[in-house]
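quick one, 292 residues, struct below
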Amino acid sequence: MILLFLLAALACCPTALVAAQDAASGLAPNRTSLAIVFDTTGSMKDDLNGVKRGAHRILETEITKNKIANFILVEVNEPVVSRARVTTNPRDFQDMIDDIFVQGGGDCPESTVLGIKYALEAALPHSYIYVFTDASAKDPHLTNEVLDLIMKKESQVVFVLTGDCGDQGSAAYQAYQKISQASSGILIRIQKNEVFDIMNLVKVAVTLEKVNILNVDKELADDNNIYDIPVDTTIKQLTISVSGQGAKIESLQDPTGAAVDGAYNMTLPNVDIKSLSQPVAGHWTLKVSPPM
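---
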């Protein structure tokens, strides 16, 4: 399967809902939340090391100072899923991540959907929720509650999966697909040693305002692998993510037909990302490899 997700960052003003909630909370206006939902069972040791290293890099940037009002951490384990811990201090958030230790587990499904629910409840509108796990969901019955929260908070959920329970056709796995699609997120399947690299996606994706131009979920190969991307003058950052077996961005052309140069690129075995600043207004052309 190949999942195509396009994200454009806007320079327009934030919604009144964001401003109102920020004012009520005493936080600086026009900002949002960055949340990590992390599976802390024993098999996640390598993933945790990658997240810790990547978080250091992200939290040292101006992104967190200017655009993130607060940081949220939810730990998923059995039988307890921690309530969301929230801080406005990047250093405290890094300490929270550094203090995570993995333990327990044994049965593969985990209560990940509950962890996402806790994160969304604590988050500001238009927030970014990153879920790290190597197991399917034990609690798909909570999916509709999470979908309701996504609609209310207008937040994005990105799954970074380094495994599953061998049940990709089950409701336990499909819960992740439903949540990522409803939130205009993406479900990324990678190896455990690639988690640090995927943290660069967080740096690219965290922006003040965003709008989705196109979101395509394809399970079968066909001839429709070329897409028209309309870009207007309000768009300041264009990010294209393709995820799935054999995923690849074959080409991206600007409105003049010229191939894109100078873009940020990240390519992993099952993930291909391209991001560029100040795209020229007009119709861009994207060609992706067909799913394998």
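The radius of gyration is 18 Å.
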